[in-house]
Amino acid sequence: MWTSRPIWRWSRRSSPKPLNFMSDKLTKETGERIAANTGLMFIGKGGGAVFNLLVMVLATRALPPAELGALFILHAFMLLAAELGTFKSWQALIRFGVPHLAAGDTPSLHRLLRFTLGLDIVTALAGSVVAAGFLWVGHGLLQLESAYLPIALAYCLLIALRLRSSSLGVLRLLDRFDLLAMQSLVMPASRLIGVLIVMQTGASFASFALVWAVSALVDYVSLWGLALWQLKARGLREGLFSKWPTLKAPETGLWSFCWLANIDASIAVAKQELPVLLAGGVLGPAFAAVFKIAHQIASVLVRGTQQLDEVIYPELAKMVEAGQTHKIWPLILRTGGIMVAIALVVGGLVAAFGPDVLSYLMRKDYGPSAPLALFLLLAAAISAAYAPLLPTLYAAGRPGRALIARASGVSVLLVLFVVLARVMGTDGPGWAFVIGDSLALIVAVAITQRTLSEQVALDKQKTTL
Fold it and tell me: Is residue 163 situated within a structural domain?
């Protein structure tokens, strides 16, 4: 039921007594950890976004819009195919692994890890086969020329090696966001180095595709290595591989959680990658290149909000486990406000200097990127406001509600993307993002307030038992 009392009015006197280890001091430390870890990840992902923007600028000097757009379409398709089949096992690893780690229950944590690894392996292999099959018969739908098909099919092999989710979950569960921040620079830095090399040796579509593929592989391998290293450092690796990965769930409710998380993650990646494919399908590969460059500019903020999602989720899970739900709403209001402030500052800087800088750095063929980027930056500022809300729903064990909140905005965004692109041209996609993210914010606030009210009531019941 909807509460008649706003969640932010729960006072300390009416709040439930902490159930176990999380005192007011530890709650303060939680906020400080979130701020510090978010800062680390924002710097890492922000730096990566800058590297990627440099790569885009160099690529626009080497390839015409049609070829560069084809490369972006291919990479977006690979990521979309990979993510649609992924169960986001890192979310399950945190949701169900936090109690095991706190209790020192290594065998249970190992069973959970073997399950998430099994999910990663099976879905990666299946995604690779399905993606290759789709490209074989449907590459024309993506406006990829037949000459690019051999390269595209080889690119699909990357999906089978993209076993990232469990590795990410391990590092987040062990609070090693410093390592994640550094690792987030691996792909963009290696891509930048590769682009500089091919521009000296002869730039072509094939050489750029090779650079994209190699940099992705380097990213995957480095992430696996860091996760294994940290498991060993914490004494958690011994015995992990004594049994094979499995799809047999070691926890009640684990499979249902994973399915809902998969659908929600698929919607999230659809928002990230599908617009590039729609841009190419509706307005052609050349516009896909223009859109991708604008999207890359906005990703300085988008990446930051994504990292907040990943940083705050483990901390919120600990607060819910400790019966401290009543302290979550003020925390996410403060965090969301800070994210919006950062987004507005960055957006203002881009609005003031971005068009002149881009027109100087890139060929005139890519001119429409600058105004489109301003729309996407505004949308990123709106999405920053609800960045802490969706992980709150996961921490409360309500992934279905997070799915509803995200789907409401993304579905409207994708429909409007096609409609407004046909009606308004290059400005249409920007308006679609602004309207879609605004709707998602409204829905997420309403659902999160309801969920926290219900969880606070459950916490109070526990204290009276």
Answer: yes
- Write out pLDDT tens, residues 26-45: 455 666 666 666 666 666 66
Indicate the pTM of the whole model: 0.64
**Which amino acid is located at 95 in the chain?**
R
pLDDT at 23: 46
Q: What is the pLDDT of residue 153?
A: 84
pLDDT score for 107: 92
Residue 149 included in any domain: yes
Q: How many domains does the chain have?
A: 1
What does the block give as tokens for 245? Answer: 């990965």
E strands, 186-294, where? none
pLDDT of residue 14: 36
Q: What is the dihedral of CA 283, 286, 290, 292, to 10 degrees?
A: 90
Domain containing 280 equals 7-464
Distance separating the N- and C-terminal Cα atoms of the chain = 22
Burial class (CB in 10 A: 0-12, 13-18, 19+), 235: exposed
Within a domain: residue 1?
Answer: no
Q: 194: number of CA atoms within 13 Å, CB side? A: 22
User: Residue 145's CB: how many other CB atoms inside 10 A?
Assistant: 14
Q: Among 114, 107, 229, 104, which residue's Cα sits nearest to residue 166?
A: 114
**Residue 2 domain-assigned?**
no
Contacts for 363-369: CB closer than 8 Å, 24+ residues apart: 363/60, 363/61, 365/60, 365/64, 365/65, 365/286, 366/60, 366/65, 366/289, 366/290, 366/293, 368/287, 368/290, 368/294, 368/426, 369/290, 369/291, 369/293, 369/294, 369/297
Distance CA 260, CA 444 (A): 16
The list of the chain residues with pLDDT below 50 reads 1-24, 26
